Every structure is written in structure tokens, then in C-alpha cells.
Q: What sequence folds into this?
């Protein structure tokens, strides 16, 4: 369990609720961004170093008005084998209030043979708030036999200010065959949630241009329902291509944020 809330004090974002239990570990947070000095960077670590077969993980982040948070973790997380009829579960609830900005940027998951993971991300973002959500995975067989994970189920749900869902995206792979991946070895998605008034076509064009520069990557960006932002889908030959794409996406997101976000005083 990881439960954090953030408020704005003295012109900066700080943590005002900090609850966590095994395997989550939380150490010092930082104000390191030159482009926005009030943004708080939080690095979440895991004591176990991996997700195991029957883990049941829960995260909740609440960003108060005018806060700015960038949350990352210490590195790619391995997801290990699950016994038959079991799977690891992860529930992530993100609440972003008026004028706040959240960058939820976990490192990719490494799915080992017979791994099984079910993940749900629920984002409730105020109409005038911003959010950038990353998700990615790759596969690894330490025996070099080309074995794959057993199951991957992922759900992303977007609401604006507690409304009915604007977007629900579900992915489920069960005992996938090699042919389904078409030679790609890493996959990712990003959701860029923006307030009304942004030129989504212009941002989409910038994203497309940057993604086309990355060799070994196939990427596509499209507008989300109700003009709530953009969704980006990625497939790559190697994980480093996904990381490079994520960095480009973050730069474009921050450019959009810098142009139009009013900093609370």
C-alpha cells in the first residue's frame, strides 16, 4: 500500500500525507526542475525489487489545488511467475484537483515466463488540471527459450472532476503467441490529459514528428474523447526506444503546460 497526498505551501508542493507499507519504500523528495521550481519529484522504491505471483498492490495519490508532482520509481520492475489460477494485482487511483499537474512515470515492467499481472489505473482529473501517465512492458526469458508471460490485463479509466468515465481502455493478453508481437519486443502507452483550449492537432503533429525520429519505434497519437487530451501507443524493437519516446513525450507535455498553466500563488 502507498497512500500520498500533496498540498501547496510556501510556493512549493509538499507531501502532507505519507502512508506506505511493504514492499513500497519512500525516501526524500526533491525540487529539482528548473522549468518549474514548485514541482515535487518523488521516487518510489520497492523493498522486494519485483512483483511476485500473489502480490496485491495498491497506490493512491491525491494532488491538491495548484500542486505539481512528478512520480517515478527506481528502475524497471520484474514481474515473476505466478502459480496457476493466481495473478498479481495492482490498483492505482490518481486524483488531480484544480490547477494541479501530475506526471506519473513508472519504469516499464519486465514480464518473465508464466508471469500474470492485472493492473487498473483510475485517473480523476479536474477540468483545468493536467496529467501525464506512462505505462510500458517488455518480456524476458532468462533461459533464452522464447517463453512468454501467461497473462497481462491492463485497464485505464479517465474521469474529469468525478464525472462519468470519458475514456476506458482495456488490454488483455492471455498466453500470447509469438506472431502477435510482429517482431516487437517492448510496448508502451501514454495518456496526456489537458484542459480545454489546447490545440490538440498541433500537439499531435509535434508528437508524430518526434516519434518518427526514433529508429526501431512505431508510434501513433490520437485525440482522446471529449477533447480531453491525447493517447499515444508505442511498439518498439527494444526497451530503450520506449524510454526515448517517453522522454520526448514528456518534453512536449511540459511545453504545453508551461504555455498555459497559471501558477498558483
A:
Amino acid at each position: 500500500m502507498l497512500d500520498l497526498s500533496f498540498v501547496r505551501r510556501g510556493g512549493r508542493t509538499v507531501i502532507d500525507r505519507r502512508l506506505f507499507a511493504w514492499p513500497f519504500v519512500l525516501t526524500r523528495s526533491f525540487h529539482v526542475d528548473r522549468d518549474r521550481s514548485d514541482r515535487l519529484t518523488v521516487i518510489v522504491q520497492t523493498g522486494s525489487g519485483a512483483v511476485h505471483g500473489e502480490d496485491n498492490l495498491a497506490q493512491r495519490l491525491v494532488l491538491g489545488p495548484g500542486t505539481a508532482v512528478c512520480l517515478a520509481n527506481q528502475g524497471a520492475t520484474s514481474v515473476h511467475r505466478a502459480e496457476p489460477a493466481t495473478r498479481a494485482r495492482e490498483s492505482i487511483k490518481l486524483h488531480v484537483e484544480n490547477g494541479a499537474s501530475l506526471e506519473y512515470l513508472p519504469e516499464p515492467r519486465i514480464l518473465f515466463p508464466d508471469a500474470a499481472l492485472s493492473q487498473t489505473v483510475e485517473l480523476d482529473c479536474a477540468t483545468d488540471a493536467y496529467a501525464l501517465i506512462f505505462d510500458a512492458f517488455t518480456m524476458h526469458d532468462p533461459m533464452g527459450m522464447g517463453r512468454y508471460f501467461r497473462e497481462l490485463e491492463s485497464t485505464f479509466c479517465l474521469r474529469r472532476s468525478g464525472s462519468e468515465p470519458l475514456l476506458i481502455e482495456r488490454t488483455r493478453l492471455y498466453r500470447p503467441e509469438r506472431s502477435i508481437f510482429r517482431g516487437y519486443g517492448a510496448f508502451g502507452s501514454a495518456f496526456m490529459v489537458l484542459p480545454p483550449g489546447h490545440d490538440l492537432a498541433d500537439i499531435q503533429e509535434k508528437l508524430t514528428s518526434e516519434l518518427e525520429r526514433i529508429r526501431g519505434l512505431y508510434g501513433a497519437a490520437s485525440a482522446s474523447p471529449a477533447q480531453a487530451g491525447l493517447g499515444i501507443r508505442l511498439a518498439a524493437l527494444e526497451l530503450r526506444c520506449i524510454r526515448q519516446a517517453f522522454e520526448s513525450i514528456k518534453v512536449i507535455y511540459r511545453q504545453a503546460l508551461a504555455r498555459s498553466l497559471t501558477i498558483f500563488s
